[in-house]
Amino acid sequence: MRVGLFIPCYVDQFFPNAAIATLELLEKLGVAVQFPINQTCCGQPMANSGYEHLTGGCNELFMKNFDGFDYIVAPSGSCVLHVREHLRSDEAPVKARDIAHKVFELTSFLTDILKVESLDSRFPYRVGMHQSCHGQRGLHLSQMTELVAPQFSKPGKLLGMVKDIDLIPLSRKDECCGFGGTFCVTEEAVSAKMGQDRVEDHLEHGAEYITGVDMSCLMHMEGILKRRDSKVKVIHIAEILNAQL
């Protein structure tokens, strides 16, 4: 299979280690990965702010960069959900739809497409896993606790394959961190308080690291941790799944 690596702009600029870990992990699993060098923002920030009608250039560039791949994989649930639901093209609507359906969040690709059952990784730390809203409620990476339904978690299943990891329980395991993209700008106080509550749950259960599938959520919580002078660190799930100590 030919897999295109889709790296969101904020990961590229602020958290390149998450992108590198994603590439290395996929290659270790035998996937031939290509990185289209001209990719830029997928257009989600503009769409979230009410300007989706101005994202045509982002859509066309995304299609140009990722046309021809069997799958497109990204270490970001929110960006994947945006592309899957909002990629549009007036000139090539069928192509846009086909490309959108090929876009996968990393943990979903590993569990649903590659069907990974074991990993050669080790991470001997106490880790709290944050279930991001886009991943859980949009991409169905895990079950929502308010539903009377069998519980599952694709990121949790993969973390369970990591040697020596200590996954801690949380009191509210699928609570929103408050980031919400532009929400953290327009509703700063509410966003910060939600983030403080989310971080506190991890701290109360002794986490050394907080992980998840979205560096945007982790970035939000990292800022709160740093303001508290906490030693707890955030780390993208790809970095854990790729870790060999």
From TrEMBL:
Residues 3-83, 127-221 form the Cysteine-rich domain. Pfam families: CCG (PF02754). InterPro entries: Cys_rich_dom. It comes from the Bacteria. Signal peptide: none annotated. GO terms for cellular component: cytosol. GO terms for molecular function: oxidoreductase activity. This is (Fe-S)-binding protein. It comes from Mucilaginibacter limnophilus.
